[in-house]
């Protein structure tokens, strides 16, 4: 069950209006939904993670709390959620995803907006800000995966080892002691872990994990894996952490204290390199403080927007 667009989006430059729409950018129909247009604020554009996820759960958990004080635009990337898939499963890249986002901005006639990116979406938000600094008013980043794949692989491998049990823990220990490149070992770990282990990896509160899975099932939306495979097959650039000093706008970096997918250390490093970065740690959350501590999450965003 998911919300389909009521019709194609408004003409460029037309006032924003609430509703679900399609916009064609770079030959792909992209789904987006506007809520809170009447608030008249600089829009928050929600950029989901994955790679290959969608914004369905975000819309139904933290979304209404943000809509109470801000204009929010929910956006499914190419091949994700309710957006159309490209003809080729290899037709994904960070520059292309940045170009898609810029096309959405141009079609909506936004002079500037506020990217709100979670997980991989935080990485995409930072890449957009580096490519189009004049179009970003502020940045909101939730556990962004902006680092080299080797560092991220080690974070996640040790995260799985910490939450695994029994024979699975032994097998993860074997991967940690192996000699293959860390990203290859991480791929094996993801193929080994069961649902319960993934939930402990991603969530601090088991009730939040159950809610997340219920919404996944309700949505009927599936991550095809195409984007992840395509991005992983491309040459990996060196760490771009130092490039963050070129992003001058205020930036809120949020992370759960128990995040084993990205981790506090990485988010601290990202925040420290952003000239106006501010780090907020959620003590009772893991990778999804938007689900585990929604009231505080909304309050932190509101405070940041008013600062």
Automatic annotation (TrEMBL):
Top-rank taxon: Bacteria
UniProt keyword list: Acyltransferase, Hydrolase, Transferase
SUPFAM superfamilies, A to Z: alpha/beta-Hydrolases (SSF53474)
InterPro entries reported in the protein's UniProt record: AB_hydrolase_1, AB_hydrolase_fold, AB_hydrolase_sf, Peptidase_S33
MF (Gene Ontology): acyltransferase activity; aminopeptidase activity
GO biological processes: proteolysis
Keyword flag Membrane: no
A single cellular component GO annotation: membrane
Residue span, AB hydrolase-1 domain: 43-294
One Pfam family it belongs to: Abhydrolase_1
Family to which the UniProt record says this protein belongs: Belongs to the peptidase S33 family.
Name this polypeptide is given: Hydrolase or acyltransferase of alpha/beta superfamily
Lineage: Bacteria, Bacillati, Bacillota, Clostridia, Eubacteriales
């Amino acid at each position: 069950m998911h919300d389909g667009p009521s019709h194609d989006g408004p003409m460029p430059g037309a006032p924003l209006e609430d509703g679900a729409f399609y916009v064609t950018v770079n030959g792909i129909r992209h789904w987006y939904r506007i809520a809170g247009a009447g608030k008249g604020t600089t829009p928050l554009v929600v950029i989901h993670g994955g790679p290959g996820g969608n914004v369905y759960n975000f819309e139904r958990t933290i979304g209404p709390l943000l809509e109470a004080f801000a204009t929010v635009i929910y956006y499914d990337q190419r091949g994700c959620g309710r957006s159309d898939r490209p003809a080729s499963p290899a037709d994904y890249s960070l520059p292309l995803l940045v170009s898609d986002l810029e096309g959405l901005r141009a079609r909506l006639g936004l002079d500037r907006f506020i990217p709100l990116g979670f997980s991989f979406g935080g990485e995409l938000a930072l890449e957009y800000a580096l490519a189009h600094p004049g179009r970003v008013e502020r940045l909101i980043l939730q556990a962004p995966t902006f680092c080299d794949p080797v560092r991220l692989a080690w974070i996640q491998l040790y995260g799985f080892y910490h939450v695994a049990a029994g024979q699975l823990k032994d097998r993860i220990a074997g991967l940690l002691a192996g000699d293959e490149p860390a990203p290859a070992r991480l791929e094996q770990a993801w193929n080994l872990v069961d649902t319960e282990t993934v939930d402990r990896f991603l969530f601090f509160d088991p009730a939040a994990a159950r809610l997340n899975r219920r919404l996944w099932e309700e949505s009927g939306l599936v991550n095809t894996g195409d984007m992840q495979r395509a991005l992983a097959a491309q040459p990996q650039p060196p760490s771009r952490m130092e490039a963050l000093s070129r992003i001058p706008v205020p930036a809120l970096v949020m992370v759960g204290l128990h995040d084993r997918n990205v981790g506090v250390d990485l988010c601290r490093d990202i925040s420290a390199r952003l000239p106006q970065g501010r780090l907020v740690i959620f003590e009772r959350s893991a990778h999804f403080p938007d689900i585990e501590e929604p009231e505080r999450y909304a309050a932190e965003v509101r405070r940041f927007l008013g600062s």
